[in-house]
Every structure is written in structure tokens, then in C-alpha cells.
């Protein structure tokens, strides 16, 4: 996930990283069986994950950060599309996603993510860890849906928690670093 900053402007990547990290951890806590799926997870997916990452992506467009714009906008839209899949607001008019369809949906996101992983190669180790663990998360969730083997989804959940925690670390370290730099300039 991009956290590039444009001189003199706030870094929208920070909110995108927090939104991703916190949302994926909430969802993955469900995958490992720690919490049941509830409105708390759904709201996090729809509001913080979906809207938060989407807005971060739009702000990256304004800062001429193509990678961040692509990254956060796409994953914001991922969370919205997942919310639609989960709640099926069209009822009987459109059949709910079956395991095979969901498997292909997740596999396409895994492919997209590995492409961004290679695009993030020069951004640093932390960004590569986030993208690689997200790739593994999508891939394992796809395999879990294709095979119906629940332990695969559980393993994916643990990997997702690691990915989310690294994202939160990256966001927090960016905020702390920028605030320390401001304090040093003001001193």
C-alpha cells in the first residue's frame, strides 16, 4: 500500500493504510473464529474500508500518486463489492454468489494484488510485506472457496491479521515520523 507523500501536503496514504489494516483485521478475526460475523464487521467493511480507502485513493489522484490512487481506490471498491456480495441487496432477483463464483472473484483480486506487489517493489520492505500477505490472503481464500476446506480459510485469516497489523504499523509510523519532524522544526 502506498504511503508516498507530496511535499507540503497531507499524506492520504496514511488513512488508506489504517482503513485497510483495521478492516482486514476485523474480517479476519471472523475467519479464524474469534468473533462472529455481525453488523460491526459489515459496517467496518462498508464505511472505513470502502469509503476510507476510496477517499484516500481520490486524494492520491490529486497528489499525482498513480500507484496510491490505483491501490486505495481499487481496494475501496473491493470492500464495497464485498459488502454487496455479503448482503445481497437484490434479493431473489440475482442469485447470491456461490463458492465457485466467490473463488474466482477472490482469485482475480489475488492476481491484481500480485501485480501491485511488483509495482510496489521500490516502495520498501513494509509495502512489499503488506502486498504479499494480502496476495496470500486472497489466494488462500480463493482456494478455500474452491475446495471447501475450512482450515485454508483459517490460515488465510491469520495471514490477513498479519497483513493488517503491518499496515497499521506503517500508517502509525508515518504519522509519528511526520509529527516528530514538525516538532523538530518548531523547536
Offer a concise description of the structure:
The protein is an all-alpha fold and 187 residues long.
Structural notes for this entry:
This protein is mainly α and 187 residues long. It has a single domain, classed as Serine Threonine Protein Phosphatase 5, Tetratricopeptide repeat, CATH 1.25.40. It contains six helices and no strands. The chain is globular. The protein starts with 12 loop residues before the first helix and ends with a helix. The mean pLDDT is 92.
Key structural traits:
187 residues, mainly alpha, Serine Threonine Protein Phosphatase 5, Tetratricopeptide repeat, 78% helix
Question: Layout of SSEs?
Answer:
Layout: H1 13-31, H2 39-62, H3 66-87, H4 99-119, H5 125-147, H6 150-186
Helix pairs in contact: 1-2, 1-6, 2-3, 4-5, 5-6
Amino acid at each position: 500500500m502506498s504511503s508516498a507523500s507530496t511535499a507540503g501536503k497531507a499524506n492520504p496514504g496514511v488513512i488508506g493504510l489504517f482503513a485497510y489494516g483495521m478492516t482486514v483485521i476485523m474480517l479476519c478475526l471472523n475467519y479464524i473464529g474469534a468473533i462472529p460475523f455481525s453488523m460491526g464487521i459489515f459496517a467496518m467493511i462498508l464505511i472505513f474500508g470502502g469509503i476510507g480507502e476510496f477517499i484516500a485513493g481520490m486524494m492520491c489522484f490529486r497528489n499525482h500518486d498513480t500507484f496510491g490512487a490505483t491501490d486505495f481506490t481499487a481496494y475501496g471498491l473491493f470492500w464495497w463489492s464485498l459488502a454487496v456480495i455479503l448482503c445481497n441487496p437484490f434479493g431473489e432477483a440475482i442469485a447470491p454468489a456461490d463458492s465457485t463464483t466467490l473463488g474466482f472473484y477472490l482469485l482475480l483480486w489475488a492476481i491484481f494484488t500480485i501485480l501491485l506487489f511488483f509495482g510496489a517493489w521500490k516502495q520498501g520492505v513494509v509495502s512489499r510485506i503488506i502486498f504479499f500477505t494480502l496476495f496470500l490472503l486472497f489466494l488462500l481464500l480463493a482456494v478455500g472457496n474452491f475446495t471447501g476446506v475450512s482450515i485454508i480459510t483459517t490460515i488465510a485469516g491469520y495471514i490477513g491479521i498479519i497483513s493488517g497489523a503491518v499496515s497499521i504499523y506503517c500508517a502509525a509510523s508515518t504519522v509519528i515520523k511526520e509529527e516528530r519532524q514538525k516538532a523538530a522544526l518548531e523547536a
